[in-house]
Amino acid sequence: MGSEIGVTVWNEFRHEREDERVRAIYPDGIHETIAGFLRRAGGVRVGTATLSEPEHGLTEAVLAETDVLIWWGHRAHEEVSEEVVTRVQEAVLRGMGLVVLHSGHYSRIFRRLMGTSCTLKWREADETERLWVVDPAHPIVSGLGEYIELPEEEMYGEPFDIPPPDELILVSWFEGGEVFRSGCVFKRGRGRVFYFRPGHETNRSYHNPEVQRVIVNAVRWLGGDARSERGGR
Ligand code: ZN
User: Fold this and answer.
1) pLDDT tens digits in sequence order for the chain, 233 residues long
2) How far is the CA of 44 from the centre of ligand 1 (A)?
3) Rounded to the nearest whole angstrom, what is the distance from the C-alpha of residue 101 to the centroid of ligand 1?
4) Beta strands per DSSP E along 33-177
5) Cα 160 to ligand 1 centroid, rounded to whole Å
6) Nearest to residue 30, comparing CAs of 45, 47, 42, 12?
7) Which CATH number among 3.10.310.10, 3.40.1280.10, 3.40.50.880, 3.40.50.150 corresponds to the domain 5-114+183-229?
8) How far apart are the first and last CA of the chain?
9) How far is the CA of 118 from the centre of ligand 1 (A)?
10) Separation of 122 CA from ligand 1 center, angstroms?
């Protein structure tokens, strides 16, 4: 479809159906909120996929049209099939971009691509998070100021058991004193993985315009590379 970047937003889609507090923030699911702001940003062709669909919505045909896959999961990581994890891993190695959000740090696909435990510290206390931009020239933080401040988020703290990132773009400080590598890029084969921390299900972070800006920027940056790797499809 011309120069549009093909994006698939994948969500486990459990909290929104089972918890009224989450449904109040994301009535159609986190995936639809993310798909919505990506469509409004333009230049993308956006689809969604969820855990309960056949093959979790991530068939070979869907991945063949996906330049960037966005991943949100939390309580059902172990329900994602081995076959789909391997299929997504192979797509990344061929050049697909992967954006792993928040609790996706512990998804099977992220752990597979990192090769480490991906454990971290955490605390649910609706604390202020300040995500400091540590690489202001990076395209992923284009248009941002010195930091993004989120009034209420879950805390994630170091040590975060990941390999040293190829690029470190954002570092978070939390009200309770912890710090965390909250925006990290990893090269895997011809593809790239961007881990971005915010997005606890009972907080409003995907409605924050600066968080949206980071995700839109990441899709454009990862997607441009993915398209050229595949011959500009
Ligand atoms: Zn969370």
Assistant:
1) 468 999 999 999 999 999 999 999 999 999 999 999 999 999 999 999 999 999 999 999 999 999 999 999 999 999 999 999 999 999 999 999 999 999 999 999 999 999 999 999 999 999 999 999 999 999 999 999 999 999 999 999 999 999 999 999 999 999 999 999 999 999 999 999 999 999 999 999 999 999 999 999 999 999 986 666 655 44
2) 27
3) 10
4) 44-50, 68-72, 97-101, 121-133, 147-157, 167-174
5) 15
6) 12
7) 3.40.50.880
8) 8
9) 14
10) 8
- How many A from CA of 75 to the centre of ligand 1? 10
**One-letter amino acid identity for 208?**
N
| CA 119 / ligand 1 centre spacing (Å) | 13
- What residues are neighbours of ligand 1 (ion), with CB under 5 Å? 103, 154, 200
Of 106, 81, 219, nearest in space to 162 by CA: 106
User: Which residues have C-beta within 8 Å of that of residue 219, sequence separation ≥ 6?
Assistant: 5, 7, 38, 44, 68, 70, 97, 99
pTM over 0.90: yes
Q: CA-CA distances (angstroms) from residue 206 to 147, 150, 215?
A: 16, 11, 9
For residue 183, the one-letter residue type is: G
Helix (H, G, I), strand (E, B) or coil at 148: strand
